[in-house]
Amino acid sequence: MGNGQGLAGKTVIAGVGQTEYGKRGAMKGRTELSLLLEAITRAAEDAGIPLDEIDGFTSFGFERHEPVLVQATLGIPELRHSSIVWGGGGGGSTAAIMNAAMAVATGLCRNAVVYRSICQGQYERYGQFRPRPAFGAFCSPFGLMTPAQMTALTTRRHMHLYGTSRDHLAEIALTFRRHAQRNPKAIMYGKPLDRETYFAARRIADPFHLYDCCLETDGACAVVITSADRARDLANQAVKLLAVAQASGPRWSLGPMGTHNMPVDDYASINSKAVGRLVFEQAGLTPSDIDVAQIYDAFTGLIPMALEDYGFCGRGESGDFIAAGNLSWPHGGLPSNTSGGLLSEAYLHGMNLVIEGVRQMRGTSTCQVEGAETCLVTSGGGGGHKSAAILGR
Amino acid sequence: MSYFPDEMPVPVAGPDDGPFWEACRKRELRIQCCADCGTFRHPPVPVCYHCRSQNTDWKQVSGDGEVFSYTIATHPTHPAVKSMASYNVAVVMLDGAGDVRLISNVMEIADENLSIGMRVKLCWDQLSDGQLVPRFVPAQENAHG
């Protein structure tokens, strides 16, 4: 498949692990660390790789657990690689997989685990004001305080330029919620959403109302990366890492999480044109080769901009693409966020999107795309750099 | 009276953006620009992204501009805004400063009347610590269509 370059095909995702997902504060008596250890242990079990042989540890911004602490707590004898990708939220989730894949592909370590744990019941809430060290003086005194507000500004501009509407945003929220109704692991499982309820919901930051915003979740996810050679001996189906890349375009800086001085022509985007180009080049594929996608959906408004940045449709054409039902399983042209995504499954900074990508490639998704051989997983919406991976069967 | 209650965070200036806030205290809106090639940049940083010169100037601008994007925030995310039913945050593209935009607020306007492309003009708003910050009001020309 394709003419891969760079990291393409050298490593695999051998196993995935997750805890139960709960609404923020629901994990009574549990710490972020205990959730993390559970996810890592399950990922190693799923991979069929003994914990003692996990010697690489990677994560991304906002992670609170240093690899040496995780290693020591689990009694793992030797750590050979640790790294953390800059940037919080979700922009680094697949870039952390890239770091793990680089370390494994070069032989620096044998098996690397990529992890994220969130226990907002123990720590602070992401949806509330937190002081921002970079350029905060130009944001907080003017009431710009949360990712919802920051992303609302880029989304509003996209609506102004291209006629993207709340109907399009509704279609996204309702589609992903419908997908979640088939996924017992989803927080919104058993809680369907209809148009009337969507439009009647309270406003958060115009154009975003309640159901345009992702969940606030406590839980943990981990995935184990190993070499393509090792994968042949494993019990469970390993998923190919056809490509994984990280990028940021010119003058993006922190983008909407900063002072909104990105280049005017890129403003109504998610800064993913570069990473989109790189990840498709690496895999030797084009957007039309993608069978299913997991697109970072911290807010509905990120989806139209992502579809355009990754080249699934032209600039300004995402509204029509969405209205045509393309994101919907099973009949859409690009079934997306088939677990319910960050809007309706869980918000683990995008790591749960990676796990759903693995399920799709193993044929075990609750919204399985029949015969799917490629899955795009994207990371990040608002902040700085972006990353993405293409998984293969 | 300030746009926000007194408990709102105030700007904490550092070495790079100090001159911006100092100028505000004199009711002057000064935007950082390159002393060599003239490229405007914001937020303030030590190097010109265009020519990489570290020679810096602070050019005064009129404060006229237009709304580049905006949001109406309703959900209170900070204790200071709990008493407000809603407020707006606007990204304002300034006239005469390249493509520099300021995050600010448009005062004296109903939520539903705010729009992208709307002309605005500068006004100064005093915070609890005495600092003046740039906010905006609709320009007169909007009233005539």
Short account of what is shown:
The complex is a heterodimer of chains A (393) and B (145). By secondary structure, chain A is an alpha+beta fold.
Question: What are its keywords?
Answer:
heterodimer, A: 393 residues, alpha+beta, Peroxisomal Thiolase, Chain A, domain 1, ten-stranded mixed beta sheet, 12 helices, 12 strands, globular, B: 145 residues, mainly beta, OB fold (Dihydrolipoamide Acetyltransferase, E2P), 2 domains, five-stranded antiparallel beta sheet, two-stranded antiparallel ribbon, 8% helix
Describe this structure in words.
The complex is a heterodimer of chains A (393) and B (145). Chain A has twelve helices and twelve strands. Chain A is α+β, with helices and mostly antiparallel strands and 393 residues long. Chain A has one domain: Peroxisomal Thiolase, Chain A, domain 1. The N and C termini of chain A lie close together (10 Å). By secondary structure, chain B is mainly beta. Chain B contains two helices and seven strands; from the N terminus they run H-E-E-E-E-E-E-E-H. In chain B, strands 5-4-3-6-7 form a five-stranded antiparallel β-sheet. A two-stranded antiparallel ribbon of chain B has the order 1-2. In chain B, strand 6 and strand 7 form a beta hairpin. The longest helix of chain B is centred in the N-terminal third of the chain and has 8 residues. The radius of gyration of chain B is 16 Å and the shape is globular. Chains A and B meet through helix 4 and strand 6 of A and strand 3, strand 4 and strand 5 of B.
